[in-house]
Design goal:
The protein is mostly helical. It has one domain: Amino acid/polyamine transporter I (Up-down Bundle), CATH 1.20.1740.10. The protein is built from 18 helices and no strands. The radius of gyration is 20 Å and the shape is globular.
Length: 438
């Protein structure tokens, strides 16, 4: 295992590939059907809505990463904004958990597409078993070192971005540019459903934080972190829209919703035939596997940074190596647990709640304490907060109407995170060194 951070080990193309790897792996493959279920026939436009919210949100991360590139990324931003406090530690842990949740989401998506490729309905024990298997594969790639992660990410990103975009173009050509404006199973929630679906679309873009979390290892980080984030978001919105329009043109809405866990594969066969179906399944496997590799790479480094900041507890449990090696193991174990015990809808909802709450806390902290120091525009950050609040409140209200248990689970999980952090920091107060760093 690599025992230390290596400066200049991740190039600008590597960083862009890592960001798109996480975003496309989860976004278009795992969430298209769920977004369609909430938003109805105009679901492709939800990706535009999500991109707009993400654009305002990304501003804070770009400004902070350009000023303070760090291997901890999100943890660094929160620590600089709030100091070694319960708020900083709890919000950072929410971000880490949302990333791990994303890994389980992608792992189950990989399993769904693989089983569909073999003509089997994705259900029962094979789904979590295959999901855990691909998580283990992503772990093995990560322990081989940064350069392996970068090379695998960039090759897979080129294959999947090009391939999925080609799928979208071909499906549009075959099916005609049209929309299913009505259909059984369409959402009856109107604008509320559209805004709530935006919460899931934001998850499809949040992979840009993977780049933030690897800032210290990117070449020329003061310039390239921001460039990589902007490029990754731009690439993904083009791919998302192309594919969403293709799926909408190929399938009636009720069929998209029925096959929501593997919507792209379902859309490929009527538009492109059997060959197109199998090629789409292959692309989905590449996309989800590369997404896992990039996400595990980033979240393990974030957890290591939080450990070094003394914001979260740590135990090596007898394992050799340094902290980063241990957090890599913790990441895959938690992701594997979630993959076994939760389905895609539950995983996506928890991820949305955790991420949006953390995002609001980051924007407020930077706006309140750091915006003058980094030369940031206050109105952009306040707009980001306002958009997050609207989306989060609408998503929570709609979920409360249809699945109150998941809202209660999210509230309980967040309360538990902050309570545990408060107890940990009370028993392990920050040293003068960590307070001085703030």
């Amino acid at each position: 295992m690599a025992s230390q951070y290596t400066k200049n080990s991740i190039t600008l193309p590597d960083a862009i590939a890592m960001g798109t790897g996480v975003m496309i792996g989860a976004g278009i493959l795992a969430l298209t059907g769920q977004i369609a279920e909430l938003a109805g026939p105009l679901f492709p436009f939800v990706f535009i809505s999500g991109a707009c919210v993400t654009a305002f949100s990304a501003y804070t991360y770009v400004k902070m990463s350009n000023a303070y590139p760090s291997a901890g990324g999100i943890g660094m931003i929160l620590q600089k904004a709030y100091g070694p406090t319960t708020v900083a530690a709890g919000a950072a842990l929410l971000m880490a958990l949302s990333m791990v949740i994303n890994e389980s989401l992608v792992a189950r998506t990989f399993a769904n597409y693989l089983l569909r490729g073999f003509g089997t309905e994705p259900q029962g024990w094979p789904v979590p078993a295959i999901g855990v298997g691909v998580i283990v594969f992503a772990y093995l790639v990560n322990v081989s070192g940064n350069r392996s992660v970068g090379l695998v990410s960039i090759v897979m990103a080129i294959l999947k971005v090009g391939g999925i975009a080609l799928f979208g173009a071909a499906a549009l050509w075959a099916g005609g540019f049209s929309f299913q404006v009505a259909g059984e199973g369409a959402s009856t929630d109107g604008i509320t459903g559209f805004i709530a679906a935006t919460a899931l679309a934001i998850l499809a873009f949040k992979g840009f934080t993977t780049i933030t979390n690897s800032g210290a290892e990117i070449t020329s980080p003061h310039r390239n972190v921001g460039r990589a984030i902007i490029a990754a978001i731009g690439i993904c919105i083009v791919v998302y829209l192309l594919v969403a329009f293709a799926v909408s043109s190929s399938l009636p809405l009720e069929q998209i919703i029925r096959a929501k866990d593997y919507a792209l594969a379902e859309a490929a066969e009527p538009a492109l035939g059997k060959v197109g179906f199998y090629l789409t399944v292959a692309l989905a496997l590449v996309a989800t596997a590369s997404g896992l590799i990039a996400s595990i790479f980033a979240v393990s480094r974030m957890l290591a940074m939080l450990t070094e900041m003394k914001l979260i507890p740590h135990s090596h449990f007898g394992m050799p190596g340094v902290i980063r090696d241990h957090t890599l193991v913790y990441t895959v174990v938690i992701a594997g647990f979630l993959t076994v015990f939760f389905d895609l809808s539950q995983i996506a909802s928890l991820g949305a709640f955790f991420y949006l709450v953390m995002d609001i806390i980051i924007h407020w902290g930077v706006f309140r304490y750091l915006r003058v120091k980094i030369g940031a525009s206050g109105w952009i950050m306040l707009t980001a907060i306002g958009l997050d609040v609207i989306v989060l409140a609408t998503f929570a209200w709609l979920k409360w109407q249809h699945d109150p248990a998941i809202v209660l689970s999210a509230l309980f999980g967040m309360a538990l995170v902050f309570l545990c952090e408060k107890v940990f920091l009370h028993l392990n107060p920050p040293t003068e060194h960590h307070r001085h760093a703030h």
